[in-house]
């Protein structure tokens, strides 16, 4: 009889200790979502202690039964909280408006055309964008012209003369319907451009709020989900996902997802190519928006 009581007490103590071990797990699951706890492990544990509960009831071991019942409650709570947190995370991802930063030069502003025009006028040349193929204009020009080529874009009125990249205005306006959009320029590289760039944006993109325009020195400080830029160097140490906007100088870059033009941007983030498709659909397809959000969520998960 004494052996039976001792066995019951030992069994109850083991169940209690196992139960206590779940107290910090419950707190962790509530705060972090229990990513490190598998459904299989939790389900297997609940099944095991349920069998122990049945065994305790069968032999009339009240203490053992109560201890295992408590274990079921604690482990079941962990399982339930994990389900709730994962559902909340899924809903949060679905409802999240992506934060998209868009570069200016050679992304929405056609700086290359004006730069080439000035270069050809200054040096009596006839080069075109097709001649650059993997190089910036200053890299393409002879070494003795380098400083002169750089000075061209430091002209305070250079940016006042720029055209808009085809379809940029229309697509950016469409992006604003689904996401947060920021215009981000590393304007500190050419401080003379501040005023002209701001004037250019007010003239061509008046629908972008002034509070969503960022002039900076290094784009890694920008806390957004995506950065659309023609310069791959800006993706270094950037915490989001870099999307390379095609330009003659970056044609040899293969490390990043690329969009060839603004129709590509529209298709990537909104799921349709042109205004006619949107008019026929009646609304922006949510599948593409969800895919963009899913890509971001997966990338962030891998970086953690």
Mean pLDDT: 80
Order of strands in the sheet with most strands: 5-4-1-6-7-8
Shape annotation:
rod-shaped
**pLDDT < 50 stretches:** 278-289, 298-304
Q: What is the fold's blueprint, element by element?
A:
Elements: H1 2-32, H2 39-59, H3 62-95, E1 99-102, E2 109-110, H4 111-123, H5 129-132, H6 137-140, H7 146-154, E3 163-164, H8 168-178, E4 180-185, H9 194-204, E5 213-215, E6 226-229, E7 241-245, E8 257-259, H10 262-270, H11 275-281, H12 286-303
Parallel strand pairs: 1-4, 1-6, 4-5, 6-7, 7-8
Antiparallel strand pairs: 2-3
Helix pairs in contact: 1-3, 2-3, 8-10, 10-12
Explain what this protein looks like in three dimensions.
This protein is of the alpha/beta class and 304 residues long. The chain has 2 domains: 2-95, Monooxygenase (Up-down Bundle), CATH 1.20.1280; 99-109 and 164-303, 3-Layer(aba) Sandwich (Rossmann fold). It is built from 12 helices and 8 strands. The chain has a 6-stranded parallel beta sheet with strand order 5-4-1-6-7-8. Strands 2-3 form a two-stranded antiparallel sheet. α9 links the parallel β4 (180-185) and β5. The longest helix has 34 residues, at 62-95. It is rod-shaped and about 105 Å long.
